Amino acid sequence: MKKYWLAAAGVVAAVAIAAPSAVGAPTETSTTSTTSTSIATGTAVRAEPAKVTPAKAAVPAPKPVRTVRPGQRVDVGGGFTVWLTRDGKHWAGPDGYENFRSVVDGNIDRSEPGVSHQSEGDATGVFHSGLYYGTRKAGRVELSDDEGHKTVATLIALPGRPDWGVWYAHTVPTDGNGGSSLGVTLYDRAGKLLVELPGFDFPAGRG
After folding, report:
1. Does the pTM exceed 0.85?
2. Residue 14 has pLDDT above 90, yes or no
């Protein structure tokens, strides 16, 4: 009987040596499982799932406004040319026909932000341009269709950053309306919406 108790005591001592002490023993948790077990206590430890912060949608960066000299002709692609004078916007197409949009004849109100839109094109693509006015903080002009596709325009202005300038862009061909169905939106340099010009479903001519 004494030999039995001595043998049992030896087994208990061996277990005590092999297992860490419950006092001060570190508890390890798995980083790949949501549930782990404490070696010292044998109790389940619930690991909280990592919090995931959804990424914010990227805001298109504004293109720097290009400064041009009065009368300087700018090749804007597709055979089109644009130039600015103190009295307004001038442009010419591949056929050589020249157009003009005044900023001083009273047809636009420069006391508040606004945009205009002219477009012309064919089966190969559409050229869009217009005035932006009523602000010295213009940062971005966007064209958008009914499906939410956006095209960021290029902005040009005369020296001294007056309260008006010209924007232009090219898009793929549109459905028989010369591109007038696209809406135009003007933002300031901080990304704040200034004004929207909705599209129209009728053919756009010159001017």
Report:
1. no
2. no
